[in-house]
Amino acid sequence: MALTTRRRALTTLGAALAGTIALPAHRAAAGERTPRPRPLWQAHAHNDYAHPRPLADALDHRFNSVEADIFLVGDQLLVGHEAADLDPSRTLESLYLEPLAARVRAHHGWVHRGWHRPLQLLIDLKTEGSSTYAALDRQLRRHPRLFTRYAHGRVHPGPVTVVVSGDRAARTPMAAQTERRAFYDGRLGDLGGPAPASFIPLISDNWTQNFTWTGVGAFPDAERRTLRSITGAAHARGQRVRFWATPDSPGPARDALWTELLAAGVDHLNTDDLAGLEAFLDAHPSA
Fold first, then answer.
1. Around Cβ 95, how many Cβ atoms within 10 Å?
2. Which of the two ends of the chain, N or C, has the fewest CB atoms closer than 10 A to its terminal CB?
3. For residue range 40-63, what is the model confidence (pLDDT) as tens digits?
């Protein structure tokens, strides 16, 4: 094979593996499959339920992590940010669990068609943790094949991984289970602690309570070292890292902070601006 031809073949192969190569028009017209858009693994839809189409808007923007706040009202798990905002028709089942189950059925076992990687569903408990988690556990068990499952010391991946955040009282009953369909959202105080990634796969914390920099000016070297030590310690234990309360107004400060988070290996970027984060991550494909 001539050198030029070989280089062209290797370039084509690399692009295909990355999912970025486009089919020529005559091949597309012949019915050959076009590459599917790559999901944005780092994109987390904070307060996802506040968008016009909960879940659907985030998935249309290729997000792989969404967040829903829930309240236990009677025997129902209602989704909303404040108790005054609750609507009996907006349940966790109707907004998230049923649509995810239908999508997984349509996409041959996964949320993003052709990508065998779980979507993260972060569920923030707004009412007392132990009773709210008990109700959540009962609902998750109604979908036995939908969720990543922990059973007797082993994690069995599924199309959706539920991570429980919010009221800390959920931790004790969760830790006591030998079989469950949810995992626990830790804090920086859990980093390096005895709980393994099979219980705490995610470390989340408030950015403003741990760092002073908000994207304006230079990132202080000491804070950059702290951030990288956090991600390094978490990744060494198989855990992922997320910060909330990061700047989310469009502009250079937000872009600068997101750039530093990606460079440090932070796994999830928090936003309410779906299109803004999609555009940012598309402009930083090396992430």
1. 21
2. N
3. 999 999 999 999 999 999 999 999
- List CB contacts of 16: < 8 A, sequence separation 6 or more: 35
List pLDDT tens digits, range 245-284. Answer: 999 999 999 999 999 999 999 999 999 999 999 999 999 9
Q: What domains lie within the chain, and their CATH numbers?
A: 35-282 (3.20.20.190)
C-alpha span between 155 and 166 (Å, rounded): 23
Residue 27: beta bridge partners? none
pTM above 0.85, yes or no: yes
Tokens of 17: 């593996």
- Residue % of the chain over a pLDDT of 90: 86
68 within 8 A of 45, measured Cβ to Cβ? no
